[in-house]
């Protein structure tokens, strides 16, 4: 039961990604061809590979990470705090700083990573981008040789499925049905590319990413039937 897990042993996280380049024309000819092949099953016949490129951030082979936000609980007696911080800048720096956090502060066997749809998106995306950028994968992301029960990952989407593997519930929908308030000023995930490349407003993306990391923690608390975090319990560090 997830109620038995010590909240202080969990690192909650969310990532924001964008296409590796601002425009399709910046890709070399080989990459353009490979993108056309990669995306052909997702885009409709009338949508060209170039038009569809704005969605390239979904794939680690054609995208990059622009922000990783993490949050963790600090419990002292009856006082409960949730501390949130973000890594941003160039992707290599983001990945190295996140790796250092895992290896220094969340390196014990009991430590777990938690994200919404993390097993299908966040965790493998981070690992793939590390390999592409010649960064050794930290133990918490290296699944080779691990048995299913040895994988140190929690996924709020998987927990919500209760074995129903044909369903998908977005973070926003899950938060809504569980009564978790969603800030009115959130940008939509599909807007991250334009905010990054057109508006060049990384602070807006960081705020959005941190709110999602907090929402993952709120959902986890709700799944444990515990009180949600109050605003005064959430600290940005």
What can you tell me about this protein's structure?
The protein has 237 residues and is an alpha/beta fold. It is 35% helix and 19% strand. It contains eight helices and six strands. Helix 4 (122-132) links the parallel strand 4 and strand 5 (153-155). The longest helix is centred in the last third of the chain and has 22 residues, at 202-223. The radius of gyration is 18 Å and the shape is globular. The model has no long low-confidence stretch (mean pLDDT 95). Pfam families: DNA_pol_B_exo2 (PF10108). Keywords: Exonuclease, Hydrolase, Nuclease. Residues 62-224 form the Predicted 3'-5' exonuclease PolB-like domain. One of its GO terms (molecular function) is exonuclease activity.
Q: What is shown here, in short?
A:
GO terms for molecular function: exonuclease activity. Helix content is 35%, strand content 19%. It is α/β, with parallel strands linked by helices.
Question: Topology of this structure?
Answer:
Blueprint (H helix, E strand, L loop, with lengths): L9 E10 L9 H11 L9 H4 L10 E14 L2 E10 L2 H15 L6 E4 L6 H11 L20 E3 H6 L9 H7 L14 H6 L4 H22 L10 E3 L1
Keywords: Exonuclease, Hydrolase, Nuclease
InterPro entries: 3'-5'_exonuclease_PolB-like, RNaseH-like_sf, RNaseH_sf
GO molecular function, one term: exonuclease activity
